[in-house]
Inverse folding.
C-alpha cells in the first residue's frame, strides 16, 4: 500500500475557487489501486502553508507528495521541473506577506529538481488530449516556496518521498467570470490530468527509481 | 419541421483536421427535435466553397444556416457579429488563391450583421462553462468571404433564412501536435458549443423575430 | 493648403495617459508641408465625443480626418479597415454609459470602410521598423462609435473628407506601471507612426483618388 | 580598469539576425568609463558556444561576464535570475544537437543564481521607459546551457567574475518580417537596455559586493 499526499491551495487574489482544490477534492472519489490518497488543503499564507505541509509529511510519511497550484494565464497543465531558493511575491499572499528577492532557506541550495516522473506524466496527459508541458519555472510565489521547502525538508531530513509540483490553468468558468481574455481549461480536463499524474507517479514508484526529472 | 444547413470546412494550412468539420460531423448523431440538420463539407477554395454553399441554400431552402470555421489561436467559441465586404488572405487557400484588399461583391454593401441570436448563443455556451464571446471580426479570409457571400445571397435573393458564422478554436490534440504554444479547447467543449448554437438558433426561430444581432 | 483634423481621446479606464493624446500633441510640433493640422482632444463620453468631433468637422471642413485611439494589449499600430454600426461597451465610458448591442445609427448601414490609404500607411510604418498591421475590427467601444459616426456624417452630409481611425498600443511606460504583462510600444515609435500616417494621407490626397481602403 | 566580456549569439532557427548580436555590436561604439568591453560572438552550437566562452573567460579573466540571448515572443528585456542544470532543446541547434532532459554537468548542482545586480539593472531599464522584468527561467536551450556552464566554471575554477544572462525580445523588423503576430522591441530600446545593464553592472562592481541576485 502506497501513501500519497496531495496538497492544494485555497482560493486567493480575490478568486472564489482554486483549480488545485477543485481537482484535488475530486481525487477523493477515485479509487487508486493499492494507494491511499491524503488531501491537504493549504492556506495561501507564506508561513502556514509550508508548516502544514511539512507537519503532514513528517507525521504521515507519504511515499509520494504531489503539490498542486494555480497558474492563471497558462493554458497547459504544467508539471514543474525545478524549485528555486527565492521568494519574490508579485502580489501579497492572503496573510499580507509580500517578500521581495529573499532566499527561502538562508544558505540553502539554489534549487531542487522534481523527483516525480514529470516527462512520463506530461506525455500521458498529452496522450489523453489534454494540453500539458513541462515547465522550467514554478515562479517565485507561494507555489515555488512550498515546492522548494518540501523538497528541502525531504532531502535534509532524509524522508525519502518522491515529490513535485504541478501548476494548473484556470478553470473555464473561473476565467469566464473574471478574466474573459485569459485562456483556461475545462474542469474535466484538469481533473483527469491530476488523476493521470497520480496514476503515473504511483506506477513509476512501483517500477522503482525511474523518477528523476533529469534522466541520467 | 425546421431545416438547418450546417457548413464546415475541410482542413487547411497543412492541418490534418479542422475543428469545424469534427464538430459538424458529431451533429449528425444528435437528435434535434423538429429539426433536420443538413451537413455541408466545404473545400478551402475561395470560389468553390461559396458556390457549393449557395447551391445548397438555393436548393434546400433552409430556415437557418450556421457556418462553422477554424480560428486558430482563439481560445473562445466566437459567434461572429458581422461579415465585411473584403478579401484579404494572409495565406493562400488550398487552391492557391491569395487575394489582397479586394471587394467580395463589387459595389456591394460594406457588411452584413449575423441574423443568428448571437448574444443568446454566447450566453448559453458560457453558462455551460465553455469559453465563448461575441467576435466583432470574422477576419478577411475564406470564413469571412463565405459568411459575407451567404448573407448577401440571402438578402439579395430574398431567401429568408437566418444565418451566421461561428469561429471555433483549435482542438486540444490538434494544437498539441503542431502549435503547442497556442491555446485550444477540448473536443467535448467544441462539440457541445455547436450543439447549443443549433438548439438556441432553432428555438429562437420558433419564437420568431428575436434573432437580430443588434437588438433594437 | 490642406486641412487635417486629428482627434485623440483623453485617458480612461483609470489610466493617467492615453497614447493617442500623447502622440497627437507631438504633431503640433511638426511642420507638415502645405498642411494645417488641427488637434481635437475628445472626452471618453459616448455622446460628447461624437458631438465635439462632428461640430469641428462641420465648422472646419477638413480635407482629412484621422482619428486616434488606444487599443491596450495590441502591440502593432492598427489602421482600422472598417467601422460597424454597433455600440457594445465592455466597460463604461468616463460618463458611465455602457450600451450593449445597440445600433449607433438606427436604420443606418452595417458599416463604413476607412477612406484613408490604410495599406500605404501600414506599409510605410512597417518600413520604418515599427510594428503595424491593418485591423479588421475597431471593436464596439467608443473608438468604433466615433469612427462610424464620423464616416456616417461625412457620407450623409456630403462633406467630402477622407477619414479613418488608427488604434495605438499602450506606451511602454504606461504598460510597465500598470499592466506589466501586456505588450506596448515606445513613445518614439508611436509618435513616428502617427507622423507617417499624416504624411501618407496628405500625399495620397494630393495624388487624388488612391484612398480607398479596398482597392478596386 | 574593469574588464567586461559581453557574449552574444549568431542567428538561429532560420533567422537572419539575432537581437543579442545586433545589440552587442553597438556596445563597441560606446565609451564606458574605466571599462574595457570585449565582445564574443558565439555559434548556436551546444558544444562550441560553451567552449569558446570558457576559453575567453579563462584567458581574459574578465571582472564581469554579461551573456545575451534571444527570447522570441517575450516583449520585455529579461535579466535572468537562475540557470538550471538541464539541457532540453525544443528545437535543434545550428549543429543539429537536440538533447532531451539531460544534465549539463553530470553530478553538478541544480542551479546557479546570477551574480549580476539583476534587480538594479531591471529597475534602471524600466526607469528608462523600456519594458523589463526579472525572469525566473532562462529556458532549457543553449542560452541556459551557456549561462549554467559559465556560472559553474567561474565557481569551480574560482575565477571570481560576476556573471549573468539577459534575454532580449525580437527586434521589431525581425518580428514584422517573419512573426508578425509576435511582440517585439525597437532596436533603440534593446541597445539602450544592454548599455544600461553594462553601466549598472560595472558601477555595482565598483561598490563591491552588492551583486547577489538574492539579497541577503
Amino acid at each position: 500500500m502506497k501513501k500519497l499526499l496531495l496538497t492544494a491551495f485555497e482560493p486567493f487574489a480575490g478568486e472564489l475557487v482554486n483549480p488545485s482544490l477543485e481537482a484535488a477534492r475530486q481525487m477523493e472519489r477515485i479509487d487508486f489501486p493499492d494507494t491511499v490518497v491524503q488531501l491537504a488543503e493549504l492556506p495561501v499564507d507564506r508561513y502556514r502553508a509550508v508548516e502544514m505541509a511539512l507537519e503532514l509529511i513528517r507525521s504521515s510519511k507519504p511515499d509520494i507528495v504531489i503539490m498542486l497550484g494555480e497558474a492563471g494565464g497558462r493554458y497547459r497543465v504544467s508539471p514543474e521541473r525545478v524549485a528555486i531558493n527565492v521568494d519574490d511575491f508579485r502580489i501579497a499572499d492572503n496573510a499580507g506577506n509580500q517578500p521581495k528577492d529573499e532566499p527561502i532557506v538562508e544558505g540553502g541550495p539554489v534549487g531542487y529538481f522534481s523527483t516525480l516522473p514529470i516527462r512520463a506524466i506530461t506525455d500521458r496527459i498529452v496522450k489523453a488530449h489534454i494540453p500539458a508541458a513541462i515547465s522550467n519555472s514554478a515562479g517565485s510565489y507561494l507555489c515555488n516556496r512550498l515546492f522548494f521547502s518540501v523538497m528541502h525538508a525531504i532531502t535534509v531530513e532524509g524522508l525519502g518521498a518522491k515529490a513535485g509540483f504541478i501548476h494548473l490553468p484556470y478553470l473555464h468558468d473561473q476565467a469566464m467570470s473574471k478574466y474573459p481574455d485569459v485562456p483556461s481549461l475545462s474542469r474535466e480536463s484538469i481533473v483527469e490530468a491530476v488523476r493521470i499524474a497520480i496514476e503515473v507517479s504511483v506506477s513509476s514508484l512501483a517500477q522503482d527509481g525511474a523518477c528523476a526529472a533529469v534522466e541520467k
In short: The two ends of chain C are 28 Å apart (CA to CA). Residues 209-216 of chain C have pLDDT under 50 and may be disordered.
